[in-house]
Amino acid sequence: MLKMKVTYLKIFLHFFLWLLLFLYPIASLTDQYLINRNWLSLATIFIAFYVNYFVLVDSFFLKNKKLLFYILNVLLVGVLYALIGYTVGNAIFHPSFNGEPLREIRSGAMTTVQVILPIILSIGMCVGLKVNTRLNKNKLLLQQVKQTQLNTEIKYLKYQVQPHFLFNTLNNIYALIDVSPTKAKQSIHTMGKMMRYLLHDASNNKIPLVKEIEFLERYIDLMQLRVSSNLTIEKNFPIINQPIKLAPLLFITFVENAFKHGIDAIKDSFINIDLEIEKEHIKYSVINSSFPEKENITDSGIGLENLKKRLDILYPNDFNLITKEENNTFIAQLTLKYKD
User: Fold this and answer.
1) Closest C-alpha to 223, from 132, 129, 139, 288
2) Is the pLDDT of residue 18 over 70?
3) What is the pLDDT of residues 101-117, one digit of tens each?
4) Does the pTM exceed 0.85?
5) Which residue ranges form the domains of the chain, and what is each CATH number?
6) Most C-beta atoms within 10 A of its C-beta, which of 75, 76, 79, 101?
């Protein structure tokens, strides 16, 4: 439908511009002979332009048959010049003044240049228009290819999050089956709700922030079922009273990383989760205890690398991601501009 509208618009613009050109002699001249001469010149320009527009440029110039293109245009200009010379000899083009015939004032080389030059210029304009259209079309196709590649990469990165999350959660439930079957059942129920979110809501390009927070809350509740009593968790999620939307599964990585690598079975551990909403930004941080000796046998960096790649694609120049470790404390901070 859009393509058809663009085609109709092109036709209308071409028709309107040529109509103005053919009406101009009537509006600016009074002598019928001069009007006829202008119309004849415009007619040859019209023919040269559209012979190139519909045939020669596409068939020869844009297909690297430029020599043949130039030869055919030289022949075309010659034919049009001969046509002008023949037509001007007809009675309708004999100049007169008060009914008496007048002698043509201009003749020779200057007249030839004045006749041929506008035709050549029309051909040049046609070539320029066609080349520009081709460049814009190629540019659009390139953008579409790049966008398709980006969308594919985004889906790939997003789907990497899901198996990673599923693996961690199943390990958690497996550990509960023998220790506390009741908690294991509760975990499966909670996991079912989370999987529904992953399969339906998270498949969209953007989701409401409130749903992302609900997903985080469920994940935290699920992970708390099996952690030891020496873990202290503090979380601060705001009450959402505005329709904020953002890409899904951006916040889970910090929390996953904290539960997987920031808890020790014996030593005191902590996880502090904080999310704040400002005018145009979301500030999200997870600060947790860190046990460096565990990192040598784990894949703690994979989730964070995945998150960084997704942010680079989805929010280029609109985010700031900081991860650092200080005094056995791991700090992950994300500042994200959520408004366009």
Assistant:
1) 288
2) yes
3) 444 434 444 467 778 88
4) no
5) 2-142 (no CATH), 180-337 (3.30.565.10)
6) 76
Report the alpha-carbon distance of residue 126 to residue 132 in Å, rounded. 10
Contact 91, 130 (CB under 8 A): no
Q: Report, in this order, helix, strand and coil percent for the chain, each rounded to 5.
A: 65, 15, 20
Can you give the C-alpha Rg of the chain in angstroms? 37
CA-based angle 313:311:170, to the nearest 5? 115
DSSP states of 71-101 as a string? Answer: HHHHHHHHHHHHHHHHHHTSGGG--EETTEE
Strands (E), 63-186: 96-97, 100-101
324, HSE (Cβ side, Cα atoms, 13 Å): 6
Contacts of 241 (CB under 8 A, 6+ apart): none
Give residue for tokens 């985080």. Answer: 216
| Core vs surface per residue 142-152: b (16+ CB within 10 A) or e | eeeeeeeeeee
Residue with tokens 């002699």, as numbered in its chain: 25
Is 298 exposed, middle or buried (CB count within 10 Å of its CB: 0-12, 13-18, 19+)? exposed
